C-alpha cells in the first residue's frame, strides 16, 4: 500500500483530535506503516553512506592513477580515457599498447599472437606442464613480435608499480605476471592458417574446447580493441586489427556446430 504524506498528516490530525473516530485502527495502521517506511529509509541511507565511505579511498586512488597517466585531466576525460572505456579487460594495458604504437610493426598474424594474453588463463585447471618438452623461446624467429612482447611486459610492470604507489591491488594485473604469452605461438600459427589438428598438437597442454573458446574470445576482444583504436584517428591501426580478426575467425572454430561438423 502506497502512503502519501498528506494522508498521514490527515490521519495524525484526526488521531490526536478530541473527536472519537470509527476508523481508529485504519488510521493507526497508516501512521505505523509510514513510520516503518521512514525508519527503513534512514537505515538504507546509513548503509549506503557507510559503504560509500569504505569505497571512496580506493576510488580516489584509482582516480589519481588515471590523472597521473593522463586518462583524466582536471576532471575531464581525455583521449586515452575514451579509448579505455571501450575495452572490458586490461583496459590500461591495452590502451598504453595502442598509444605507444606497440603493434605498429606487427603483421595481422603477429597481432593475434600478441593479444592472446587477453584471453589466456595461466591457472587454467586443464593446463599441464610437460617437463620433458624442450623449452623454445616464445615468438622464436619473430623479432618484431618478441619486441612487442617485451614492451607489453614493461607496460604491465609500469601500471602495477603505479597502482602499488597508490595502494591499489589488482589481482587481474598480477595474473599477467604468470607467463601470459604462453598462447602466443599457438594463436600465431592459427592466424597463419595452420589446420586445427596441427594447432591442437602444438597446444597439447590444453583441452580442445578450451582452445576453441580462447580463439572465439580473442575475436571479441580484438573487436573492442579496434573500436578503441579508432578513437586515435589513425585508420591504419584499426585496419590492422580488423585484418587480424579475419585471420583467426575461420574454420571449425566458428562453425555453427563444432561436433556435427567433426
TrEMBL record:
MF (Gene Ontology): ATP binding; hydrolase activity; RNA helicase activity
Catalyzed reactions: ATP + H2O = ADP + phosphate + H(+)
Keywords: ATP-binding, Helicase, Hydrolase, Nucleotide-binding
Domain of life: Eukaryota
Domain ATP-dependent RNA helicase Ski2/MTR4 C-terminal, first and last residues per copy: 72-260
InterPro entries for this protein: RNA-DNA_Helicase (IPR050699), Ski2/MTR4_C (IPR012961)
Keyword Lyase: no
Keyword check for ATP-binding: yes
Name of this chain's protein: Putative helicase C550.03c
Native source organism of the sequence: Lygus hesperus (Western plant bug)
Amino acid at each position: 500500500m502506497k502512503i502519501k504524506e498528506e494522508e498521514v498528516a490527515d490521519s495524525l490530525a484526526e488521531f490526536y483530535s478530541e473527536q472519537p473516530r470509527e476508523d481508529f485502527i485504519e488510521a493507526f495502521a497508516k501512521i505505523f506503516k509510514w513510520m516503518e517506511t521512514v525508519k527503513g529509509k534512514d537505515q538504507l541511507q546509513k548503509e549506503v553512506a557507510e559503504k560509500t565511505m569504505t569505497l571512496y579511498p580506493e576510488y580516489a586512488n584509482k582516480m589519481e592513477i588515471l590523472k597521473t597517466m593522463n586518462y583524466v585531466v582536471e576532471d575531464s576525460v581525455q583521449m586515452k580515457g575514451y579509448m579505455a572505456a571501450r575495452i572490458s579487460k586490461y583496459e590500461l594495458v591495452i590502451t598504453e599498447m595502442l598509444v605507444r604504437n606497440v603493434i605498429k610493426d606487427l603483421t595481422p598474424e603477429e597481432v593475434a599472437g600478441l593479444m592472446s594474453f587477453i584471453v589466456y588463463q595461466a591457472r587454467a585447471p586443464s593446463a599441464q606442464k610437460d617437463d620433458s618438452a624442450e623449452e623454445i623461446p616464445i615468438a622464436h624467429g619473430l623479432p618484431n613480435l618478441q619486441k612487442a612482447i617485451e614492451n607489453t611486459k614493461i607496460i604491465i610492470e609500469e601500471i602495477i608499480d603505479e597502482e602499488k604507489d597508490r595502494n591499489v591491488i589488482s589481482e587481474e594485473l598480477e595474473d599477467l605476471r604468470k607467463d601470459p604469452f604462453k598462447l602466443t605461438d599457438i594463436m600465431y600459427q592459427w592466424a597463419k592458417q595452420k589446420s586445427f589438428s596441427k594447432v591442437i598438437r602444438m597446444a597439447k597442454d590444453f583441452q580442445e574446447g578450451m582452445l576453441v573458446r580462447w580463439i572465439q574470445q580473442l575475436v571479441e576482444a580484438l573487436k573492442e580493441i579496434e573500436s578503441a583504436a579508432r578513437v586515435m584517428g589513425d585508420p591504419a591501426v584499426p585496419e590492422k586489427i580488423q585484418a587480424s580478426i579475419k585471420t583467426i575467425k575461420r574454420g571449425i572454430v566458428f562453425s555453427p556446430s563444432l561436433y556435427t561438423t567433426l
